[in-house]
Amino acid sequence: MVVALNNAHAAIDTIPNAYQTALAQYDRAVQRLNLDENVIEYMRWPRREFTVNFPVKRDNGKIEMFTGYRVHHSTVMGPSKGGIRYSLDVTLDEVRALAMWMTWKCALVQLPYGGAKGGVLVDPKTMSLGELERLTRRYASELIPLMSPHSDIPAPDMGTTAQMMAWIMDTYSMTVGYSVPAVVTGKPVNVGGSLGRKEATGRGVIICMMEALKRRGMANRGDIRVVIQGFGNVGSHAAAYAHELGFKIVGVSDVSGGIYNPRGLDIPAVLAYVAETGTLTGCPNADRVTNAELLTLPCEVLIPAAMEGQITKHNAPQIQAQMIVEGANGPTTPEADDILNERGIFLVPDILANAGGVIVSYFEWVQDLQAFFWDEEEIYRQLQRILLRSYDMTARTAEDYHVDMRMAAQMTAIRRVGEALMTRGFYP
Ligand code: GLU
User: Fold this and answer.
1) How many folded domains does the chain comprise?
2) Helix (H, G, I), strand (E, B), or coil: what is residue 322?
């Protein structure tokens, strides 16, 4: 059976970066684990892959066809969980990679979920609100056979918003005939969303950063210069929280480029500027830098919070940060990991550092299922507890096996799913 699967795998050998990265990380991690070879092969594969082409009526009356995906990588630990991305860079391979990372992320932080991801090939900035609603509702209705609170639970990701999650919830609810808030997370609070969900990923990144700094004896917040790539939901909330805690944010960027001020950016002013203009371009009291320059600025902590494949063998030798905390999924390639390790740059990996989002998604799902809602204090307390517990387990594995934090996180997660799979057994 293993031979047949290996042959079939050759058919998807032309995969682009993200999936190659995810598979390379997996192959590295399983080498260090004492898992059954059938289990190793099984977990390497996405369970289900769904492609849909669907029509959307544009405001001018014309019908345009769009392509969307949803991949369930694993359902071993529970219903599959993961966001939906709207971007012109979406490919099936990218979605496969992101779904696989969700499986490991949920397993690492011990949520009762498998991993999934969805994507639609669209630039949401080119659509009106009405067009986005029609697109989201149609995509959601195409996903209905695959999704439910007990089978697959979507959430926001790049290019999608809480409002879109409300449309997904409404489309599902209208179809079944009653309201089902637990079918999707990241909703607005007034339709069953959770307090703190919007801020959760960015906040979690900073919680992990602080834990890493503390363990490395870097205590004085005012001396820690932080650079953040990406100013979307993750980067902007990470910046806001870090600023509030007294860290010095010296550089941030969005798709239009970056801004830099070695004395520290006034983050509330930058947030207000972006809220007003929709871009960092022209933001006062800072020098302009390119996105490439931003990654190699002098700083103590670099937070890539944009997208995958940003830190590569080409720029890893120039990175000046002492520490990288991954807000994005898959921002660092395996070759870059090797270079960073050689250079002694400490890295907190994505599946730990950005897990705050899915952790509070889990709280949202639990609150919706129980129809009992928690206050913000409780949410942040539980978020911190789960992240610090997961950080500690990862750091211990790193120490015990003399491996870096990425390897330790992947090993911990993959072992958990593998052991659960062995206990469940292979059907039939
Ligand atoms: N898209 C987010 C992630 O990559 C959140 C997923 C979720 O909340 O289900 O972790």
Assistant:
1) 2
2) coil
